[in-house]
Amino acid sequence: MSPGGTGTRTLHDADEPARTGPTGAGPGRFLPAADHGRPPNPDDLALAVAGRKLLAGADGPLPRVGELPAGIDWVPVGTLDGVPAWAAEPADPEALPGRWRGWQSLAAELPEPHAALAGRALAVVTWRRTHRWCGACRTELTDVPGETARRCPACGLTGFLPLSVAVLVAITRPGRAGGPDELLLVRHAYGPTELWALVAGFVEAGESLEAAAHREVAEEVGLAVGRPTYVDSQPWAMSGPGTLLAGFTATVTDPAAEPVVDPRELTEARWFPVDALPAELPPPYSISRWLIDAVAGPH
Asked: How far apart, in whole angstroms, are the C-alpha atoms of residue 141 and residue 134?
């Protein structure tokens, strides 16, 4: 699952939380933003980040700015139902009221817009912490007003919040002797190795999403598929400053073909009837599960 087999990045199914269902299910609306045109108000949403944890409020999933101590250096990250939201990495996390929670457990309980907002806050704060200095001349970077970007005041080099794109592919084949269609599931050599998940990997520069899907399927399980059909996408904040997953379904071109696993990536790959899938599947809030459920349908 490293992109092109040339790097060390890996994509762990079910490591990351997301929305409660495909196509933006759940109440509310989240819009990313890099400028609110004013300082934080006490009733604005506050997303305090410490490492890969976020602060949950005492009376709700997200506290308000006025509930936290003054002097925190907030940066704008977006709006939720029109309410501005701010993120920060406090100097003394333990001094804040509330409970620190990992994004995976917190977002598993949140509707999609809240989870997307929390993921963006985590991505923005992580990026700002790891991109303080110019890579060309070593000068300290400054924020670009109105953009999620940082610029070098000495040489003008500008860096934007990076976005890595990855694909997941639910591979199917016609059932034998009139039986139900079958879905290919794999077990990874890393991460949650007990789960049956999907072929996945990062998109290379100069590569389309569909080309990446074809390549990853060929590399990981040695199969050829027809043209992938796009289903949905999902933010994947915990894999880095920003990752976007694009989910596809595809049918194998040779129904008699059996998978040949890449042992660097997988420990096992197996065809399952869609009406007899294993219990060890990715959690319902993950795009992997949305794709599996979309293929399996009601049974």
From this structure: 6
Per the structure block, which two tokens stand in for 195?
């789960």
At 240, the pLDDT band (50, 70, 90 cuts) reads low
Q: Which residue has the tokens 């994004």?
A: 103
> Is 162 in a helix, a strand, or coil?
coil
- The torsion region of residue 37 among left (phi > 0), alpha (psi -120 to 50) and beta comes to left
Assigned token pair, 141: 């970077």
**Which runs of consecutive H residues, i.e. helices, occur in 131-286?**
209-221
- Taken as a whole, the chain contains a residue count of 299
pTM: 0.80
User: Which parts of 61-163 are beta strand (E)?
Assistant: 75-80, 83-88, 99-102, 142-143, 149-151, 158-160
CA distances from 83 to 33, 54, 112, 133, 183 (A): 11, 19, 16, 32, 42
